[in-house]
Amino acid sequence: MSVYTGEVFEMARTQFNRIADQLNMPVDERDRIFYPKRALTVSCPIHRDDGSTMVYQGYRVQHHLTLGPTKGGTRFSNNLEIGEVAALAIWMSWKCALAGLPYGGAKGGVCVDPPAVSQRELEAISRRYMQEMIPFVGPHTDIMAPDMGTNEQVMAWFMDTYSMHVGHTVSEIVTGKPVASGGTLGRREATGRSIVYLAEQALEKLEINPRHATVIVQGFGNVGGYATQIFHEHGAKVVGVSDHTAAYYNADGLDVPALVAYGRKHGVLKGFSTELTINREKLLTQPCDVLVPAAIERVITEKNAGSLRCRVLAEGANGPTTPEADTILDQNKDIFVIPDILCNSGGVIVSYFEWVQDLQQFFWGETEVNDRLAQVMGKAFAQVTARAKAENVSMRTAAMAIGVEKVQLAKRTRGLFP
Ligand code: NAD
Question: Is 95 a catalytic residue?
Answer without folding.
Answer: no
